[in-house]
Input
Amino acid sequence: MEWLWGTTVLLVPAVVVLTAGFFYLYGLVLSLVSKTSVRNKVVLLTDALTGLGKECAGVFHRGGARLVLCGRDWDQLEELSEELSRNSDPALTYPVKLILLDFGDMDSLPEAVEEVLECYGCLDILIINSSLKVKAPAHSVSLEMDKLLMDNNYFGPVTLTKAVLPTMISRRTGHILLINSIQAKLPVPFRSNYAASKHAVQAFFDCLRAEVEEFGITVSTINHTFISSTAIEEPQRPLWSWLYSRKPLGVSVDEATTEIVKTLSNRKREVLIAPSLPKMAVYARSFFPNTFFAVMAAGVKDAAAAAENLQ
Output
């Protein structure tokens, strides 16, 4: 018995060390692969002025990408470009190209698309990071807002994608990555119009994936929950409220950026970035829809009752 106890005492530290070493090596290899996934590649990133956009821009720029950054505000784009230049080695990076791009202004889109294609003459990676959010009861959202949502979240990304596809098809290579909301898969109350636009764009890229695979083009979609700039410990609350609260359990900017870089490396077709509970809700929506709908309805009633009590 003593020899068994002595062997166990020796084996446990050894297993811990070997496991830690394995994960360290895995992380090191993954880091090296991630850095080479964009080197010398022409990468276009839309809505680069968001928290996630800026973080991705920094990672891609340091990784040696030929970066094309798009946004609605020229002054902010120039500030971002200057910041990237200050924090990088000119011998190892390329100058950043800037393009004004506003999916909410469809009339200006053809000119912006033409400028995109003129930057390098080709495009290796297109990352669509653009989203307009609205939270309100469905009946209170105007038709004008519905159209604006669809322009930003569906028609804009689709128009840009269609414009760059011919060059990717002719070169028989390319990677299109859509950064989308979890609400494309998990619609929740008071976001019906927003969720509808996310459903639409998800469906388009799911279909496109099969259509362009024969040309060597990868289409990836990343669905995430709320992206928080800082890690915040969430308070206790009822189970259902986590699924449609104003700021549900989210992910950090670093975590989302890491998943994006990994997806560019492993070319995974679909990624869900979410804590365990929202992931479980996605599966519950598919396998137990009646239960899911009942929980959602109960949550709305409880929220309404709480609001009345505060009045």
Notes: The CA atoms of residues 7 and 273 lie 41 Å apart.
